[in-house]
Amino acid sequence: MRRFCGPLLMATGVLDLLVCLLLYPAPLGAIARGGFFNTVERQPPQLDREVAFWHVAAGTMMVLLGALVHWAQARTATLPAFLGWSLLAFGAAGAILVPVSGFWALLPQAGLILAVSRRRPARPARRLEAARAPGAPVTARPAAVLDREGETW
After folding, report:
1. N or C end of the chain: smaller count of CB under 10 Å?
2. Secondary structure of the chain: what % helix, strand, coil (to 5)?
């Protein structure tokens, strides 16, 4: 359960992109044929282009958010609670405004992030031991701890 937050968010984004390709191939093609620049306007004849664009934008951002969550959780073994609460608020507002939508998929993922945020991280303690030089005194908190890539956290 702990390591599924990022991959689930990425899968949601990929699913949104696939739905966009299936439901809006004509508007996406019109955007490409128009040369991409200034091809999505807020005019009634082009609302299908705007919907397609927002599906692509939302799906892409969900994939990026999922990758960031996966990266952060791999390094800290936990996630911040504000991320879960924010995703819950965003998903609930979207589901209320557009009940027939994919916003519902965000609600259980927000709950999963909130559950993970309540757990104590177990992995950083091992990193603290690994960062201590042999023979060095054990301190409660080292000045800086380097991860595998040499980044300080």
Report:
1. N
2. 65, 0, 30
CA atoms within 13 A on the CB side of 103: 15
Give the C-alpha separation, 95 to 99, whole Å.
Answer: 5
Which tens digit of pLDDT belongs to each residue from 74-85? 888 888 999 999
Give the pair of three-digit tokens for residue 34. Answer: 């128009």
Q: Can you read off the two tokens belonging to residue 153?
A: 């956290």
Provide the total of helices (H) and of strands (E) in the chain, helices listed first.
6, 0
Cβ-contact 127, 104 below 8 angstroms: no
CA distance 90 to 36: 29
Angle, CA of 48, 49 and 54, to the nearest 5°: 100
Rounded to whole angstroms, how far apart are CA atoms 30 and 28? 5
Neighbours of 106 (CB within 10 A): 22
Please count the CA atoms within 13 angstroms of the CA of 7 that sit on its side-chain side.
5
**pTM of the predicted structure, to 2 decimals:** 0.71
Cα–Cα distance measured from residue 101 to residue 31, given in angstroms and rounded to the nearest whole number: 23
CB-CB contact of 71 with 6 (8 Å): yes
Gyration radius of the chain over CA positions: 21
